[in-house]
Amino acid sequence: MIKEGVKQETKLFENTIKFLTSFTYQSSKLITDCSIGYTYFSTIEPKTHILPHCGPCNLKLRVHLPISLPQDDSACWISVGNERKTWKEGEMMVFDDSFVHEVKNDSSEERVVLVFDIWHPDLFPSEIEQLQQFPL
């Protein structure tokens, strides 16, 4: 829906985009107009392991909003740094994806989350303005 800060074709997801553009977390908003911002649906198939990796910078936070979770929630998890968590229905998960993280779905069902990036709450508005003027 948003790739490198640019809105893509969103007619199918107009309500989702409206929600996201009004969303705030610790006064941080959705990243648009900057190449570090992404919004997409992430589907992890059964018996899938996404190996440890990290995002490009700590200027943003990544948010996961569960859409569809396996019945056995203990079989599907994310590990960020040294902390392992499972997704809970109706609860957003916010983390700094510049830390090493991995995902495993050892269940027999797929996992779907809405992923979107927000500005790191420690950034000043003037810093965000600069980042939007000179995309990374």
Automatic annotation (TrEMBL):
From the UniProt record, which GO molecular function terms apply? peptidyl-aspartic acid 3-dioxygenase activity
Q: Transmembrane residues, as ranges? A: none
Please name the InterPro entries in this protein's record. Asp/Arg/Pro-Hydrxlase, ASPH, IPNS-like_sf
Where would I find the Aspartyl/asparaginy/proline hydroxylase domain in this sequence?
Answer: 7-121
GO CC annotation: what is one?
endoplasmic reticulum
Taking the record's annotation, the residue ranges forming a coiled coil are none
Task: Give the top-rank taxon of the lineage listed in the UniProt record for this protein.
Answer: Eukaryota
UniProt-listed SUPFAM superfamilies: Clavaminate synthase-like
One Pfam family, please name it. Asp_Arg_Hydrox
**Which family does this protein fall into?**
Belongs to the aspartyl/asparaginyl beta-hydroxylase family.
Q: What is this protein called?
A: Aspartyl/asparaginy/proline hydroxylase domain-containing protein
**Native species of this protein?**
Arcella intermedia
